[in-house]
Amino acid sequence: QKEVEQNSGPLSVPEGAIASLNCTYSDRVSQSFFWYRQYSGKSPELIMSIYSNGDKEDGRFTAQLNKASQYVSLLIRDSQPSDSATYLCAVNLPGNQFYFGTGTSLTVIP
Amino acid sequence: GAVVSQHPSRVICKSGTSVKIECRSLDFQATTMFWYRQFPKQSLMLMATSNEGSKATYEQGVEKDKFLINHASLTLSTLTVTSAHPEDSSFYICSARVGQYSPLHFGNGTRLTVT
Questions:
Q1: What residues in chain B have their Cβ under 8 A from chain A's Cβ atoms?
Q2: Which one-letter DSSP state was computed for residue A100?
Q3: Per-residue pLDDT tens over the stretch A2-11
Q4: Which of these, A41, A93, B65, B84, is most buried using a 10 Å CB contact count?
């Protein structure tokens, strides 16, 4: 079983809609959780960090963490064509262990 | 804050030559840096963890004699691809973080093409 699982997509949403991206992780000692955005040909860019259960909002982005269910999600409100990218979920375990999911490809259709 | 600078951004070299890639943490000290490789349309693959003042830890399947990592200071790690071959052509990305539970911050990556 992979440490971090994501649906590879592609996920397509119309402009202005809410995009919902999901991620599950296998290790219960996971301590911190991150979402990165990666445009084609570029390196990943951090967009959200979340450390405790519940929701964390930053502009159009909301990260949700449920440690009991080992589930992390990212909601993008009012999706824009510029949000079209691959979104990577990442999980931090003790001892410098950092695991990435394979990414979900999102396309926002104008 | 937490800026990671990587140089060069793009390099083309001939088969058999060596290429050095530099990764610097500009506004923080990084005792640990991470080197990733990414082939087109594939996931990030961790190559090695670079530790300041000690030997790097390589992932299974990564040849330590081919991919030389040096982490001589708290702000600089280098990756040298020795005797490069066309199959080494890839996107190499370094990353670092401020603290144990903080996120990784990535450099802009180096696109290596070996002809």
A1: 32, 34, 43-44, 46, 49, 91, 93, 100-109, 111
A2: E
A3: 789 998 889 9
A4: B84
